[in-house]
Amino acid sequence: MSITETGGAEEVTLSEGHHPQSHGPLYKLAIGAVGIVFGDIGTSPIYSFRETFAGHHPLTPDQFHIYAVLSMIFWSMMIVVTLKYVMIIMRADNKGEGGSLALLALINRSIGDKKKWTSGIVMLGVFATALFYGDSMITPAISVLSAVEGLTTVNKGLGPFVIPIAIGILVGLFAIQARGTARVGMLFGPVMLCYFAALAFLGLIHIMDRPGIIVAMINPVNAATFFIQEPMRAFLAMGSVVLALTGAEALYADMGHFGRRPIKFAWLYFVLPALLLNYMGQGAMLLSLPMGEVSTAVKDPFFYLASDAFRLPLVLLATAATIIASQAVISGAFSVTQQAIQLGFVPRLRITHTSESAAGQIYIPVVNWALMVMVLLLVLTFQTSSNLAAAYGIAVTGAMLIDTVLIAVVFIMMWNWNRLLVGGLLALFFAVDLGYFGSNLTKIPNGGWFPLLVGAIAFTLLTTWARGRQLMIARMNEATLPMEIFIKSAAPSAARVPGTAVFMTSSAEGVPHALLHNLKHNKILHERVFLLTVRIEDVPFVKLQNRYSVKDYGSGFYRIILRYGFMEEIDVPAALAKVEGVGPTCKMMDTSFFLARQTLLASARPGMAIWREKLFAWMLRNAESAMEFFKLPTNRVVELGSQLEI
């Protein structure tokens, strides 16, 4: 990333390989980041402070505990979000992209020759991705529900309408995904700017009544004393305090859209101060209230920051913020799924691009509707945001702990930092992450089982697909005929017909099965034959000059390898039209695409358990057609079926 001065305003310019929209003045990118990146962590004040004093392990809302909780929130934000994610992990970008899969691809590319590391690291990265799906189901449910529950602070009679209103908002949110969010997204930044400004303003009003709360929050002695005097209650309180950190991983995952500098700028100079001021304001308000009013206010301290006249506008603003936060999580689920498809962990799925200008604006119907069903089930099952908070946290802390393991690998294997510094940082990160993860394990009986169950199912599906593909390719390659032998023996006797035949193959060696089947049954070969392999590299984008490579076998046979990054859209016809060194330009009207469709037969051969082989076969049957995934013209495709034992 380079910084240039343009028209008196600092401008961030990202080198090739980044999202095309990741350029422009720093302040504009920072505003965009506020609208997209910080929605999840920004809506945490609605419920996180409340849960420590009115949740499943409530603390007495006295000065000692309020000061201790505020100190825990402050130092957790400093250590986990600011130091770990913003200052360190965001340096480990994969050509500008962040997130567990991007980091996994970066590590895999950098230390791929060290096989003893690779398999374990891959499993960790995949499990972090699996946990993300559990998180992406709970976040919209708890965020929207907690905001709509604010209506009861305006009028207690509105209680029965909370769940229907929340369900209506969530159904509408998922329903508009197919149309894209480009137009609505233009409002995200301004709305979130207003929201964070309101957080800061409401906090400041109450801090003025108890200015000493500022020193209390930044004083680590308050948190330390809590752990010394009441270690078990402090440990359990960590399960609620961590809710203030949910969304921290989004800073890293969304880095490709805005760049590290705008996200860092927005966090340090706007979002972090607004959040801290609001948490301090909630604490100051509870300490300023008469004892008789504390029991009411502690159930929703966020909304009681506002006076009666401004409480309804605050509820509406908070609801808008939670909708935006949910939108960011849904978009993140689409993005992560696309990466997983490209990297070979998820079957091909139908992906629709909802914007011609924004590369990241995609829609995946299967993911969208599956998320909606699960989110609605969560709302109907748990009923309140406080009950959902009991399920929230395990997936987040698990993913944070895995990120620490992955960054430890980066420290040790890739960066040459001072060993004492690295040791100190890792000790600090692991101590905090293990503490939070351990505390959240106590939530398992009260709902914490849900994200773990979702994570286990997702992990099984991801690993089954990856392993099944490996086995399938290996079985297909067992009887592969070398291309040179095929050309010398079979090609001369076959009749040649005009046109170009493109045989899609996952292997860059040997004769594709579809080619053998076509010759066996039709007894012909086209005058020009392309053996085409599409490879996904461990980088988000591949430069155009590296897009393809060609090998000429002679006799009209060519092997072409197309290379794409894991964030790129694959368009085979468009790429073939630009391939040089293969004779005349490839015209679609003279080209036929031959695809092999395998019917898998489960067998007792070593490799996978029978039930996983059957699961893989089911996933293969329901995968998106290669024709649509690679954007092949529908009237130029021939599919040839075969059976294969794995």
Description:
This protein is α/β, with parallel strands linked by helices and 646 residues long. The protein folds into two domains: 2-447, Amino acid/polyamine transporter I (Up-down Bundle), CATH 1.20.1740; 478-645, no CATH class. Helix content is 60%, strand content 12%. It is built from 28 helices and eleven strands. It has helices spanning 26-36, 39-42, 48-54, 63-88, 100-111, 115-148, 151-154, 162-175, 182-207, 212-218, 220-229, 231-241, 248-253, 255-258, 260-288, 291-297, 301-304, 308-342, 365-382, 385-391, 394-413, 419-441, 449-478, 483-489, 513-522, 572-576, 610-621, 626-629; strands at residues 2-6, 9-13, 23-25, 352-353, 362-363, 495-504, 524-536, 548-554, 557-564, 591-601, 637-645. The strands form three sheets. Strands 8-9-7-6-10-11 form a six-stranded mixed beta sheet. A three-stranded antiparallel beta sheet has the order 1-2-3. A two-stranded antiparallel ribbon has the order 4-5. Helix 4 (63-88) crosses helix 11 (220-229), helix 11 packs across helix 12 (231-241) and helix 21 packs antiparallel against helix 22 (419-441). The protein is elongated and about 95 Å long. Residues 1-22 have low confidence and may be disordered.
Gist?
This protein has 646 residues and is of the alpha/beta class.
Question: Which properties best describe this structure?
Answer:
11 strands, 60% helix, elongated, 28 helices, 2 domains, 646 residues, Amino acid/polyamine transporter I, six-stranded mixed sheet
